[in-house]
Amino acid sequence: MGLLPSLPMFFSLIMFISFCFHLSRAIDCGGNQVQNTIIVDQQVGKGNFVTIQSAINSIKINNNQWIKIHINPGIYRVYITIGRPCVILEGSGSNVTTVRWGYHQKVPRWLATFSSSSPNVIVSGITFENTYNLEGGSHHIKQALAAGFYADKAAIYNCRFLGYQDTLFAALGRHYFKNCYIQGEGDFIFGSGQSYFENCLMNATSILENQGPGFVTAQRRDSPNDPNGFVFKGGSIVGNGQINLGRPWGPYSRVIFWGTYFSSVVTPEGWDAWNYPGQVNQLTYAEVNCTGPGANTDSRVYWMKKYLSDSDLNQYSLSSFINQDGWLSNLPPISF
Q1: Where is the signal peptide (predicted)?
Q2: I want to staple 113 with a disulfide (CB 3.0 to 4.6 A). Which of 101, 227, 234, 293 is the partner?
Q3: Active site members
Q4: Average pLDDT, integer, range 241-247
């Protein structure tokens, strides 16, 4: 199993995106109305652009009004990046609109099939796939991101993220994932994001023989005062092989599963202390009202929290955890 980025690499990443994060607080995109719609179609003459990136690049860098890019059905074999705020990237449905690329992490480059480094971005109805670990047979598994979110106020609806090692990088900022499908095996949801996953399906896939359990999450939180963490409300974990719910990428890692269905792929112990075996009292790993054959906590690690008070649960509600300023209520309606 591949390793997560080194500390120097991670800190350089944080410096690169911190400007976008602070900028996001001052941008409201002019309300919840879409000012313009751009159509992408791979056939010349059927849209405004034939590539997704050219459509993104046509938007001014200091954009402050909602601009929608609608992607017609097709498989787009590219990697794309959003570096402008107030952008809606809308597919025609994740079953018919796919962005596919095959690339693995090489120091110092950290490239995903899809990357968003600007605040106020909405993504819906698209499959993002990194094929690197999914094709080619017996090569060594590498970090290969399907998507990375590096800024505040990203809302993602009805999308699919397909990969194996480090599929989805919730790097920094507040993120809302709803009705998404996330596939992988090794730390396939990771980062320092303040991220809320509602009714998402996590598919833990094992493609190697005689392999130990994988990990759904590797959340990074370096201080007890950091507001970040991962909250999974509802949804399910299914797949093949065996999977742990998470391991800490930082000394105060925080992951909450709340009302989630666990199939039998979830290991009895559930969690791993990884590099922090002497600091488990600082970790916040909780399972609340979860169901399914994998939800039996009798053999869980002793430091997993089996109970949270009403005030604790309120802290992890959608409104309290990522929506205290009401930004989710001021988004344009989503069609796909």
Answers
A1: 1-26
A2: 101
A3: 166, 187
A4: 95
